[in-house]
């Protein structure tokens, strides 16, 4: 590459003159004559020349504009015509690929269309068109991905008109695999049937949703269903607080007591634990349920156990669930029994849907920055651009 090409970033150019007025105006022409692109012959003559004006890049606060003298060649061998092509500049485009990529990365990083239209001297519609072009390229590459081995499934709210959407997360690589509108089996059926490599999914992590469990059993037949630890603990606390409301409605309104009841027993100070036991002494049934809840939470928080250790813990856990079936927490016990296998599977894995919930927070920020989305496909492309495709496309097998 020539010295001029190294400065501009485009090979094969010969700089004729440079003028600085409001921006940087560079006049250039090809430095070499290429072979015929049809027959690779060397016998070429210049039939005519025309000029192309290309926005190339920004140096400081000034836009570098290229004025290229483009020859039209006539091959003496095959008698065909063609125009000179430049690396990094597409035919009939008014901006180089470097300039378009610069605008895309700036807009992807949060710079508004209005700001880019002022700094890069293009319209907001052009910013959106270039952004959609680069996203479309990523989408065409990303559509060939295989399902991740460790998959997280969860729902999040999209709009009041369209309802909820389902997030499929790659928990091993901390990426969003895809986002699809709907959360029922009929709305996701066509998409799930077309997934490549769904037979190779090993683990599916989800909350205690019967819909998602039936989807996992049908479309990921070789996967182990693992319950999400956060949702199980939250379910236990919700049922306990509901029973507390029935025994002492006034105490249930005390914010200090609510904080103590929700915490794990081993995270309470000596004084806090003494105050809580003093309150529960007046409600023997509630005190017994509180102690059972603490034992239950300890079981739920187990993880990275070997198969042998998990089998040793299972009888005590089942016995505790059976005791709760004869208590006011019988509804909780029925739910835990129906989800017994996914909950026990939690003991052997560390992954949870906390990764997916974190992506949901990021999706909400994307939607806020855009002042909401009406078109779900535009929303999906933005989410995958920010949370999913970077570093994942090259893993296509």
Overview of this protein structure:
- With 397 residues, the chain is an alpha/beta fold.
- It folds into 4 domains: 94 residues, no CATH class; 48 residues; 122 residues, Ribonuclease H-like superfamily/Ribonuclease H (Nucleotidyltransferase, domain 5, 2-Layer Sandwich); 118 residues, no CATH class.
- The chain contains 15 helices and 10 strands.
- Strands 1, 2, 3, 4 and 5 form a 5-stranded mixed sheet that branches. Strands 8-7-6-9-10 form a 5-stranded mixed sheet, sandwiched between helices.
- Helix 2 crosses helix 4 and helix 3 packs across helix 4.
- The chain is elongated and about 100 Å long.
- The C terminus is likely disordered.
- This is ISL3 family transposase.
Separation, N- and C-terminal Cα atoms: 35 Å
Helix content: 40-55%
Number of domains: 4
The overall pLDDT, averaged over residues, is: 88
Q: N-to-C SSE series?
A: HEEEEEHHHEEEHEHEHHHHHHHHH
**Which structural class matches the secondary elements?**
alpha/beta
Named at the architecture level, the CATH assignment of the largest domain is 2-Layer Sandwich
What is the multimeric organization of the chains shown? single chain
Any idea of the CATH class of the largest domain?
Alpha Beta
CATH superfamily of the largest domain: Ribonuclease H-like superfamily/Ribonuclease H
Main sheet? 5 strands, mixed
Q: Which stretches of 5+ consecutive residues score pLDDT under 50? A: 391-397
What count of helical segments does DSSP give?
Answer: 15
Could you say which overall geometry the principal axes of the C-alpha atoms support? Answer: elongated
| Strand segment count | 10
SS strand fraction: 15-25%
Write down the Rg: 31 Å
What's the CATH topology name of the largest domain? Nucleotidyltransferase, domain 5
Protein name: ISL3 family transposase
Domain Transposase IS204/IS1001/IS1096/IS1165 DDE: 151-383
InterPro entries: Transpos_ISL3, Transposase_DDE
